[in-house]
């Protein structure tokens, strides 16, 4: 939707740049998820460091960091693709210094917004898992690091999904990228 329908009123808003307490809560959740995902990875593959070949290790580190930057861009593009799919309105993208974001001027219903929110963790998580299964074991932790970032970096998306699923069925969500406003007729 391009416009808020008549009778809808704001029931909740969030801005992680202004609400430092919520930002700290989400970042703490991200850290807990990161530790859990890394511990899970240790179950499958111990971490080994080859101090004899520092050039190869340095190259791997640079490659993994470059892939992680590409992952962050892909994460926001996936949000944007689904925003465009559900609204036919071109999304906008940006970076606040702390967060990369995709935003839109559209209003999304509950079902569509949950899909928008969870699409990157699900789709990119599946792709990264497949890549992780196919690469040599010497690359396991490099690729798995990106997966850990995928899961822990989606802490905000998981938080929002959990919040939205508890709200009335008629809600509409507008996500500018840096702030989110939720509307309902039942305000």
From TrEMBL:
Protein source organism: Anaerocolumna cellulosilytica
Protein name per Swiss-Prot or TrEMBL: Transcriptional regulator
InterPro entries for this protein: DUF3267 (IPR021683)
